[in-house]
Amino acid sequence: MTNPEEQLKVLGIELLVPVKPVANYITNLQVNNLLYLSGHAFSGEPTSVDIGKLGKDLTVEQGYQAARNAGVCVLATIKQALGDLSRVKRIVRVLGMVNATEDFADHPKVINGFSDLMVEVFGEKGKYVRSAVGMGSLPGGIAVEIEVTLEVEE
Length: 154
Fold this sequence. Notes:
The protein is an alpha+beta fold.
């Protein structure tokens, strides 16, 4: 497997400065060999897919891209916390939250945008257990929020 940092270059992904907390919390916390990440959405300015409700404003394909955008933000926070993405031993658990209408049922297809990116960057280390759930709303009207737990190389 190629180094995750090299994979980002191959994919043409540039990591922005991670978002700062908007309230009284921190974006990440390492406890022993586990790194816990708070909920993440997109980095920088929102694109046309980052804000809105699936099943009303956005399609599954747009939600997939929103989840991928959240993944880029997650990667930026991991890099800032660890200094190098190659210190990720394994992504362990993901909670994918989708801002969706009551009748929307394709939450897993949306969160696949995040899952596919993690496998593209980390290979087998990027496969994890997950939940993909719908929410009546998310902060700021964001389309997707992702929470992550990962194992870190000592």
